[in-house]
Amino acid sequence: MEINKATEKDFDEITAVWEASVRATHDFLPEMELQYLRPLVRTEFLPVVQVYHIRQEQDIVAFLGVLEDKIEMLFVHPAAMKKGYGRQLLRFAIDDLQMTKVDVNEQNPNAVGFYLHAGFKLLSRSPLDSMGKPFPILHLGL
Questions:
Q1: What pLDDT is stored for residue 12 in this prediction?
Q2: Residue 41 DSSP symbol
């Protein structure tokens, strides 16, 4: 499982992985919200973070986005979940990139557990997400 830095030409495929992952893990997110976010991921969010990905065969199966000392996004395609890709990207983020913070949707218990199991601790909670929407966010740190 080799981690490579993404380029802009990977962003369409990465956005598709994001959407598939969110559909599988964010059942609290209404369809209208997902449709609103999808183009923003592609045009607003991915271009401002450093993005790394893992390919299986020719397809991107997982990706990581980081900025400063924070993991901004870490998503795995549903067909590739439970195969160690997320864990590998997280270790890379912590060990190689020195990331120490992550925000996670409180309503996504699997993601919360994933980060807590990796050693993150709850620092604070926000009742709204970064866009002011009513999706509580847990701010975690090492």
A1: 98
A2: I
